[in-house]
Amino acid sequence: MSGPVYTGLRRMHPSRPEKNAGVPMVASLVLSAFVYRTDRPPPLVPNHEVRTALWVPIPALVEPARHIPHRWGLLSYPGILVGEPGRHVVWGLTYQLLEGLFERIGMPFARAAADRTA
């Protein structure tokens, strides 16, 4: 793969379900992943909803050693270590979105053994 690849989200069409075909539903929220290619990463500008943002190379997201169990409260969820341990872990809804995207393109995540039993 040459050049960086980026993902984005868009709002779905609640009144036109035929446009949402094949998109998994989470309660009443629908998310879609879009992949973009650019020659260089644009600057990240966090706002009041985002404290920190960082670029992560696509190969890092599928590297099995980065797939770790992420504890939140008493529960453990699958996660991807993308920065400082305990601070930059992709998990939850973002993990599920990426997992679905990578499955669709034929690169399923190899979850850590502990995650498969959770």
Tell me about this structure.
The protein starts with a strand and ends with a helix. The longest helix has 13 residues, at 92-104. A hairpin with a 7-residue loop joins β6 and β7. It has helices at 58-62, 92-104, 113-117; strands at 5-9, 25-26, 29-30, 33-37, 67-72, 75-81, 89-91. The radius of gyration is 15 Å and the shape is globular. It is of the alpha+beta class and 118 residues long. It has one domain.
Q: How many domains comprise the coordinates?
A: 1
Which regions contain 5 or more consecutive residues with pLDDT less than 50? Answer: 1-13, 113-118
Structural class: alpha+beta
In total, the number of strands is 7
As a whole number of angstroms, the C-alpha radius of gyration is 15 Å
The topology string of helices and strands comes to EEEEHEEEHH
